[in-house]
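We include the entry.

. . .
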Amino acid sequence: MKSSPDSHNHDNVVDMFTGKSLQSIVDTRFVRLSPELDGLEVLYSNDTHSDKLFSLKILCWGLRANGEVVGLVPWLSDIIASPDISDPLNGRWEGYYDPGIDEIFYEAPIHKVVELETAAEYYEIDSDEPDEVVQELPDTIGTHAVLATDDFANITLTEVISWRLLNNGDLQGMLADESKVEATPILPGDDCLYTAQGSESFKYFFQHQIANKIKAEDPEALAAISLLVDRP
C-alpha cells in the first residue's frame, strides 16, 4: 500500500534557514490576532541591569495553530512572542504585567484565549495562498520603524500604521509611502502602505518612548542604537 504525502512524519523534515522541523513551524504559526486594549505589558530583564525589570506594551495577542496564545511585541527587527524575547545583552522574558492592579502573570488572560479561539473558528480561512492577508490591525502602541542608509549615516523614524497577519503566519509592519498618500488619516488596508520588513532600508522597530528619545538625540538612546549597529 502506498502512503500519501500527508502520512509522512514532518518532524523529520527540517527548514534549512531556521533549523526547526517543518511540523514545528506549522504548529507554531499564528492563525488569529486580538489587539491589546487594556494596557497590559510584558516584562523582561537583561544581564547589564540584573536588578531591574523593564516593560514593553503588548501590541496584541496571537493564537498559534497548536492552540497556544501569547502576547506579541515589536522587538528589534521583527514582532515576536513575548516568551521568545532575547536581546544583545541577553535579555529574557520575565512574564506579563497588569499595571492597573500591579500583578505579574505568565499565561494569556482567559478572556483573550476565548476571544481568539471563537474568532478563529468563526473566521476560518480556507486558502492555499501563503501571502493572503488574514487580518490587519492598527498599531495602538506608537511603534516606529528605523530606516537607515549608508551604514546608519542617514536615519529616518516613521510610524507603523498597522500590522498584517498573512495566511502563512507571518506578521508584517506596514508603513506609509508618503508619495502615494491620497487621503488622511491613513488607515489599515490603504493602498499607500508597504511592508517594513520588505524594505532594504528597514533596520528595527521601537516603541514610541524610545523613538521619541532618538528624535531628541537622547544620549542613552543613541548609545543603544550604536550597540545595535555594531552587532555582527
Observations:
- Residues 13-124 form one domain.
- The chain has two domains: 13-124, 129-232.
- The chain has four helices and 15 strands.
- The CA atoms of residues 144 and 159 lie 4 Å apart.
